[in-house]
């Protein structure tokens, strides 16, 4: 990060309970933060390469922060900042050239497409990072594109999942539509899904078996969107003062840093909430086992946070909202 956001922070954002109105406020502030970072990074890059960048600077200045910024734009900025941090002159030039070639209409978008990983050049650095990830005691990750697979059934399952979520939790549905702008499917092993602030708005999901696609999207849309939402909150407040302290995780067998334990518990709170409502209203979906598992994992996560998390005042407010709220 170049600097912390200067926008005023609204304490009511810091609740685990989804709220469409608060999500829109947070999302707008987070986009303004991105706009500020982009302006500062481009100014530094222009000085470094000895060139003015009037068109890019104008596009940043004219960005409509009421609309969802494309994950590609987040990736452009992350790549530029990484190149500058490593003093990679060619990397800076190449990123600026690619960014300059993006059409103005590509900066923001309102749809939610489903596509394979490795469909665009801007993904390359993220794919390298993911594929090079090493997890102790786990075989190397496999992360493959889908080549010529027909993704229409998955697009249909996604649409159906969003509609089910809307029927039981309008606020969670609206949060997904506010934050998530791209579904990237992959084949492989060692990982089910992920999201990254480096391409905020995109979520990567392992391609599900057709008979499990609906349940898969019901879980992972909520899961990855919740990661995005918490990352946006953490741009405005760190939430805890011991983020790298290692402890047990409610979702993984290996110990994890406390900020990841907070992420896991936050995600579980949301999935417990949505799945309990889905199971109560649509028992034929067969989500009883998942609902019980989310509840048990969530209680485990809360116990860890209560014992070991050292929260900021806003982090305590977030934790309290998870403990006090029902489903």
Order of helices and strands: HHHHEHEHHEEEHEEHHH
Query: Got a strand count?
Result: 7
Strand content: 5-15%
- What overall form do the CA principal axes indicate? globular
Uncertain segments of ≥5 residues (pLDDT<50)? none
Distance between the termini: 35 Å
Average the pLDDT over all residues and give the rounded result. Answer: 94
Cα-atom Rg, whole angstroms?
A: 20 Å
Provide a descriptive summary of the structure in words.
- The chain has 327 residues and is of the alpha/beta class.
- Among the domains are: 17-106, no CATH class; 237-327, no CATH class.
- 55% of the residues lie in helices and 8% in strands.
- The strands form two sheets. Strands 1, 2, 3, 4 and 5 form a five-stranded mixed beta sheet that branches.
- A hairpin with an 8-residue loop joins strand 6 (246-247) and strand 7.
- Helix 1 (20-49) runs antiparallel to helix 2 and helix 3 (71-85) packs antiparallel against helix 4.
Structure at a glance:
InterPro entries: AKG_HExxH. The protein is α/β, with parallel strands linked by helices. The chain has 11 helices and 7 strands.
Feature tags:
11 helices; AKG_HExxH; single chain; HEXXH motif domain-containing protein; 55% helix; globular
In terms of topology, how is this protein built?
Layout: H1 20-49, H2 54-61, H3 71-85, H4 89-100, E1 114-116, H5 124-131, E2 142-144, H6 152-168, H7 170-179, E3 182-189, E4 193-195, E5 202-206, H8 213-234, E6 246-247, E7 256-257, H9 258-281, H10 288-308, H11 313-324
Parallel strand pairs: 1-3, 3-5
Antiparallel strand pairs: 2-3, 4-5, 6-7
Helix pairs in contact: 1-2, 1-3, 1-7, 3-4, 6-7, 6-8, 7-8, 8-9, 9-10
């Amino acid at each position: 990060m170049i600097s912390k956001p200067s926008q005023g922070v609204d304490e009511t954002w810091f609740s685990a309970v989804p709220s469409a109105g608060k999500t829109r406020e947070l999302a707008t502030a987070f986009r303004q933060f991105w706009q500020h970072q982009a302006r500062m990074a481009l100014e530094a890059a222009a000085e470094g390469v000895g060139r003015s960048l009037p068109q890019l600077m104008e596009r940043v200045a004219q960005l409509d922060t009421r609309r969802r910024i494309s994950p590609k734009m987040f990736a452009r900025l992350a790549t530029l900042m990484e190149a500058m941090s490593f003093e990679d002159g060619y990397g800076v030039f190449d990123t600026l050239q690619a960014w300059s070639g993006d059409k103005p209409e590509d900066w923001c978008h309102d749809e939610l497409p489903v596509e394979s990983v490795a469909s665009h050049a801007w993904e390359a650095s993220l794919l390298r990072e993911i594929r090079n990830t090493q997890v102790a005691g786990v075989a190397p990750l496999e992360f493959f594109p889908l080549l010529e697979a027909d993704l229409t059934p998955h697009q249909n399952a996604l649409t159906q999942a969003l509609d089910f979520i809307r029927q039981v939790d309008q606020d969670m549905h609206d949060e997904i539509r506010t934050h998530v702008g791209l579904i990237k499917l992959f084949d492989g092993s060692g990982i089910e899904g992920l999201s990254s602030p480096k391409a905020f708005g995109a979520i990567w999901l392992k391609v599900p078996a057709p008979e499990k696609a609906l349940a898969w999207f019901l879980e992972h849309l909520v899961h990855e969107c919740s990661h995005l939402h918490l990352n946006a909150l953490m741009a405005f407040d760190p939430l805890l003062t011991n983020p790298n302290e290692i402890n047990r995780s409610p979702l993984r067998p290996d110990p994890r840093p406390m900020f990841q334990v907070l992420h896991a518990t936050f995600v579980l709170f949301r999935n417990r909430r949505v799945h309990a409502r889905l199971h109560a209203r649509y028992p034929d979906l067969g989500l009883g086992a998942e609902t019980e598992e989310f509840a048990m994992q969530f209680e485990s996560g809360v116990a860890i946070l209560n014992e070991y998390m050292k929260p900021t005042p806003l982090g305590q407010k977030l934790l309290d909202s998870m403990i006090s709220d029902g489903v």
